[in-house]
């Protein structure tokens, strides 16, 4: 075979070019390497996508519950709907949790407003 860098003829079993000293990789090996790398990259993509989808759904659920908690104490008219919006976003990934959050957002808004009125009256 020939060196891929300088084109000097080298022994088939040698690992380095005798002329330029660059590492010699046989075609079969390099093809395998590329195939393995592509395979690993694909695997990584699948894994990271799976994690992202799960993670983002979880974040919306957590945010939704935080907004719901805040809506009971402060600005229910803002944080109630915000919790519902988080529920809508979370619903794409976590259907049950998302639906619960949408309902809880509305409940948080109403309960928060009632509590606000009661605090003002008392
Ligand atoms: Zn060479």
Helix-residue proportion: over 70%
Radius of gyration in whole Å, from Cα?
A: 30 Å
Q: How many beta-strand runs?
A: 0
- H/E series, N to C? HHH
Beta-strand level of the residues, as a percent range? under 5%
Show unreliable segments.
none
Which structural class do the helices and strands define? mainly alpha
Give a list of the ligands.
zinc ion
Description of the structure:
There is one protein chain. The chain has 122 residues and is mainly alpha-helical. The chain has a domain at 55-121. 74% of the residues lie in helices and 0% in strands. It has three helices and no strands. It has helices at residues 27-73, 76-91, 95-121. Helix 2 (76-91) packs antiparallel against helix 3. The longest helix has 47 residues, at 27-73. The model has no long low-confidence stretch (mean pLDDT 81). The chain binds zinc ion.
Topology, pairings included?
Elements: H1 27-73, H2 76-91, H3 95-121
Helix pairs in contact: 1-2, 1-3, 2-3
Q: Which characteristics define this entry?
A:
3 helices; binds zinc ion; mainly alpha; 122 residues
In short:
This protein is mainly alpha-helical.
């Amino acid at each position: 075979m020939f060196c891929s860098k300088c084109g000097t003829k080298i022994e088939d079993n040698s690992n380095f070019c005798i002329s330029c000293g660059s590492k010699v990789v046989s075609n079969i090996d390099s093809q395998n390497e590329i195939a393995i790398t592509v395979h690993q990259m694909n695997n990584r993509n699948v894994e990271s996508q799976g994690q992202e989808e799960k993670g983002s759904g979880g974040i919306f659920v957590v945010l939704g519950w935080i907004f719901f908690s805040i809506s009971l104490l402060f600005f229910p008219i803002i944080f109630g709907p915000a919790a519902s919006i988080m529920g809508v976003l979370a619903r794409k990934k976590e259907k049950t949790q998302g639906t619960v959050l949408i309902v809880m957002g509305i409940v948080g808004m109403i309960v928060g407003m009632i509590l606000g009125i009661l605090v003002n009256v008392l």
